[in-house]
TrEMBL record:
Official protein name in the record: YXYXY domain-containing protein
Alphabetic keyword roster: Coiled coil, Membrane, Transmembrane, Transmembrane helix
Coiled coil: 803-854
Pfam family, one: Y_Y_Y
SUPFAM superfamilies, A to Z: C-terminal effector domain of the bipartite response regulators, Calcium-dependent phosphotriesterase
TM region(s), chain numbering: 748-768
Ranges for domain Two component regulator three Y: 678-735
Length: 960
């Protein structure tokens, strides 16, 4: 190969000093094709060419690609570019670094404090004289020391120091074997790297003109050396060729890379013929090319991962081959067309029945037997004769050809009578047929009358034939003595102990009839003529089991296909059965759910009818994994007011060691996790639990992301674990963190709240106290008001009473005054009349005196006149009148005397009469004066009272 062609640089895989011998191959010739998963450039979004492959400590696959370093965790591909794009090789060291080599550069990638991969070039530190190397072909690690192998020399990197080891000649590819580094020097041969330089190994010049592609540990003290164009050689100081049989190997095949696998076999990756797996003697075990599932024939590198999966770095893409899996495919890639329905092994030949016909598998070659095109239902070996149950009838298979035995369509299966060896009953679409063995062959006799049900599943129990029907139940059938018709048939279903009428089947397991239904396993009790649960099986599965097929092997195991799972019931040392299903999870969704079937060819070869061909199961390869896989965080994001990526999955970041503390505003998190179990593919399931938030672990789910939003303050631990397709559970990955409380829920805030609460309590107490006092005061005021109101009411009532009394008194007084006034008036009138009368008498007497001349009589008359004058003066009467007048007129006379002492008694009388509203004539009569005298008297009174001319005397005296 030309050194300039990109593609011949590989990862390094270390081997132990002692290599186990290759195990003997299984004697069975049956072998299917391994499961292959291919990743194209569009999947990993990089270049098509891939070189070295290695697996890191977390289980991720690292691939050197022509456009950078690829990383695959089973779910997501990542690409990391370098200073120049073409990565040649890589190795993962124990220090957590990925050491890489490329064109004119080498260095390492490692995770920073946040787990993000960063590239650091080491070649940049070289002096100018060493910097001019062209390619870094290989990178190896031995006991913590890293070796970068280039055309110009080998660079030793130890304790962060780079030391060049040169040679006088140009170097070619280097190899690591048993912690030794070998380098091929063109034209000189194979050399060993020592401390002081390179030394030609014994007979190493044999390879001076043969370009070596790899060197492997072989047997004790021996190496296996592969060359690109000259084959394989065994080296122990002497060199011997390891010949590959010409039956499969051609001289034009070029070996790009070889690898010793964990089971001792040798994998050869070629330039132009795909992958070969051979034993230590060179015999072919497996050949994969485009016809068998590879998409590219050029294999640059081979790597076996922790689970035994074989990774192929190809010129166009990457493939993973489940070479160590107990399962393989027999399908159209091997020439088998259709879904698998029946199988039979006869010697080294395997007959496979599909919906497209009967096929013969021999020497890894599959061919169709002519005349069997169409639906195959059963393949049975009856007295060394191969009998085929077919949609078109019943056939005898001999010498690779098919001859018809019976033409009735829908031949399901044949069951031999247990007591009459030459008689056979066949189930068909429309009932039962009778076959008989005679003259060394099986012959059709007749169709049996009296039973017309489809009879795909049936078993004998003595003379009784049990026939299961898919949706009616199970029939117990008895035939007459001459085998011409069915004389008795009875249908059993939910009326006789089954949980329902559908999906009832019957199987013979170690000479015992076992019935299955939509709800478990059942047996038949002849005495009660009913069916009863078989707890020895039901306890394994639980209620609700729907068995589609059962098949025992010679070791006491029972293989089964159940509606939700498939696996085997394995017999232990104590003869107890245990359930094993985890391994079969890989093919859980691939079996043929039309007429489910599982066939035990022998104890090492079990065929499961698949949707595409058959799934081959080899129990000897079903080895439990010693170490469960790992689950780790791919990314952790803190969200809230700001987004911050905390971790990107690489290295032991600080945040995974110590709990981080986040402010309350950053109380949302997103976790992205993964478990790189490549055989499980997308079937890995996850379970997670957030302590201090979740009550229990979540259900298993295929989702590998979990978000939590608006978490409260507190301490948290997010824990996640993974479960593979085979039921293996990983250890937990844990991320611990704390969320601070918001400022209003901080300790200081709570102290403030406490103080504020005390203040509020105090203020509240004071407020309550004031309110109480105020309320009490208001109550007192209201009480006082009520009392005052009552008092006011009482006072009002009293006042009204007093007023009423006063009114009554006033009315009484007024009545008295009125009465007094009336009396006064009456008295005054009487006095006026009396005085007038007396005046008239007086005047008459005076006139009579004048007229009479009689002195004695005149004297008498004069005395009488004087008496009248004294009476007119009326002193006593005035006194009485004055008292009554003061009582009625508010002490008028007394007050008038006090205020105007200059008034004479005549003027006071005059004033009192004016107040009584007497007219001038009445006053003149009372005073015994003339009207003129009254006028004069009014004048004098006005003057003494000091009244002006405008003031009315009467009004003044009334107001006084």
């Amino acid at each position: 190969m030309n050194r300039g062609i990109i593609g011949w640089f590989f990862f390094v895989l270390g081997f132990s000093l002692v290599v186990p011998k290759v195990e003997a191959q299984n004697s069975s010739s049956l072998r299917g094709l391994p499961f292959i998963v291919h990743y194209e450039a569009s999947d990993y979004k990089a270049g098509i060419q891939n070189f070295d492959i290695v697996q890191d400590e977390m289980g991720r696959i690292l691939v050197a690609n022509n456009l950078g370093l690829l990383e695959f965790d089973g779910k997501v591909w990542n690409r990391y570019g370098l200073s120049n794009t073409k990565v040649r090789t890589a190795v993962w060291s124990k220090s957590g670094r990925v050491y890489v080599g490329s064109q004119a550069d080498f260095g390492y990638l490692s995770g920073d404090s946040r787990g993000e991969m960063k590239y650091i070039s080491l070649a940049d530190s070289l002096s100018v004289g060493w910097r001019g190397f062209d390619e870094t072909w290989k990178v190896f690690e031995i006991d913590g020391v890293v070796f970068f192998c280039t055309f110009k020399g080998v660079f030793k990197y130890e304790n962060e120091k780079l030391e060049p080891i040169g040679f006088d000649h140009r170097l070619d590819i280097s190899f690591k074997v048993n912690n030794l580094i070998l380098t091929q020097v063109p034209g000189l041969g194979l050399h060993l790297l020592e401390k002081d330089g390179f030394k030609l190994i014994r007979n190493g010049d044999f390879f001076a003109d043969k370009r070596v592609s790899n060197v492997l540990p072989f047997e004790q003290g021996k190496w296996l050396i592969s060359t690109f164009g000259h084959g394989l050689f065994v080296y122990d100081g002497e060199i011997k060729p390891l010949s590959l049989p010409s039956g499969f190997w051609k001289n034009e095949y070029l070996i790009n890379h070889c690898q010793r696998l964990k089971n001792g076999t040798i994998a050869l990756g070629t330039q132009n013929a795909g992958l070969f797996v051979v034993d230590s003697s060179g015999n072919l075990i497996l050949h994969l090319d485009k016809t068998s599932g590879l998409v590219d024939l050029t294999i640059n590198y081979i790597y076996e991962d922790q689970d035994g999966g074989l990774w192929l770095a190809m010129n166009n893409g990457i493939s993973r081959v489940d070479l160590n899996s107990p399962f393989s495919w027999i399908d159209d890639k091997m020439g088998l067309a259709g879904s698998g329905y029946a199988a039979l092994k006869v010697g080294d030949q395997v007959y496979l029945g599909t919906n497209n016909g009967l096929f013969l598998l021999k020497d890894q070659s599959v061919r169709l037997i002519p005349g069997t095109e169409g639906q195959v239902y059963s393949i049975q070996l009856i007295r060394d004769k191969i009998i085929l149950g077919h949609h078109n009838g019943t056939f005898l298979i001999e010498n690779g050809k098919a001859s018809m035995l019976a033409s009735e369509q829908g031949a399901w299966i044949l069951r031999g009578h247990p007591q009459i060896p030459d008689l056979f009953i066949q189930g068909t679409y429309t009932g039962l047929n009778l076959f008989q063995w005679k003259d060394g062959s099986l012959a059709f006799v007749r169709k049996l009358n009296g039973f017309g049900e489809s009879s795909r599943v049936m078993e004998f129990d003595g003379n009784t034939l049990w026939v299961a029907h898919g949706y009616k139940g199970v029939f117990r059938v008895r035939l007459n003595d001459d085998w011409t018709e069915v004389i008795e048939q009875k249908l059993y279903n939910s009326q006789q102990g089954f949980p329902n009428d559908v999906l009832i089947n019957v199987f013979k397991i170690y000479n015992r009839l076992v019935f299955t239904a939509n709800g478990g396993f059942y047996g038949y009790d002849m005495q009660s003529d009913r069916f009863f649960p078989l707890n020895e099986y039901n306890d394994l599965f639980g209620y609700g089991t729907v068995i589609a097929d059962l098949e025992p092997d010679v070791l006491g195991n029972i293989y089964f296909i159940e509606q939700a799972q498939l696996g085997l019931m394995k017999k232990g040392a104590n003869q107890q059965l245990s359930l094993h299903t985890s391994t079969f999870g890989k093919v859980q969704r691939l079996w043929n759910d039309d007429l489910a079937n599982i066939t035990v060819l022998d104890h090492q070869n079990i065929l499961i009818g698949g949707k595409k061909g058959f799934i081959h199961y080899q129990p000897s390869l079903d080895i439990p994994h010693n170490q469960p896989g790992k689950v780790f965080f791919r990314e952790i994001i803190n969200r809230g007011a700001n987004w911050d990526t905390l971790y990107r999955g690489h290295g032991q970041a600080d945040l995974l060691r110590e709990p981080l503390v986040f402010p309350f505003a950053q109380n949302s998190f997103s976790f992205d996790f993964v478990s790189p179990h490549f055989e499980s593919g997308n079937e890995v399931q996850y379970q997670f639990f957030l302590e201090n938030y979740d009550q229990e672990w979540s259900d298993w789910t295929g989702e590998s992301k979990k978000e939590f939003t608006n978490l409260r303050e507190g301490d948290y631990q997010f824990r996640v674990k993974a479960k593979t397709l085979f039921g293996e559970v990983t250890e937990e990955a844990v991320f611990a963190f704390s969320i601070k409380p918001p400022f209003y829920r901080s300790h200081l805030a709570y102290l403030f709240y406490f103080c504020a609460l005390l203040g509020v309590f105090y203020a509240g107490f004071k407020w309550v106290d004031r309110r109480y006092k105020k309320k009490t005061k208001l109550l007192e005021i209201e009480k006082k008001k009520a009392i005052q109101q009552k008092d006011d009411e009482i006072e009002s009532i009293t006042q009204r009473s007093e007023e009423e009394i006063m009114r009554l008194k006033n009315e009484q007084l007024q009545s008295e005054i009125d009465f007094k006034n009336q009396e006064l008036t009456s008295s005054a009138m009487h006095l006026i009349q009396k005085n007038k009368l007396l005046q008239d008498i007086k005047n008459a007497l005076k006139n009579l005196t004048t007229e009479e001349k009689n002195k004695p009589l005149n004297s008498q008359l004069n005395r009488l006149v004087k008496n009248i004058d004294r009476d007119l003066e009326g002193g006593d009467e005035w006194n009485r009148f004055s008292e009554n007048f003061d009582q009625v007129h508010g002490n008028f006379i007394t007050k008038l005397k006090e205020k105007y002492p200059q008034l004479t008694s005549q003027e006071i009388k005059f004033s009192a009469y004016i107040r009584m509203n007497l007219n001038t004539k009445e006053i003149a009569n009372l005073l015994g004066i003339s009207v003129r005298g009254v006028e004069i008297g009014r004048y004098r009174v006005r003057k003494k009272l000091g009244l002006s001319r405008q003031e009315n005397l009467s009004d003044f005296l009334l107001r006084f």
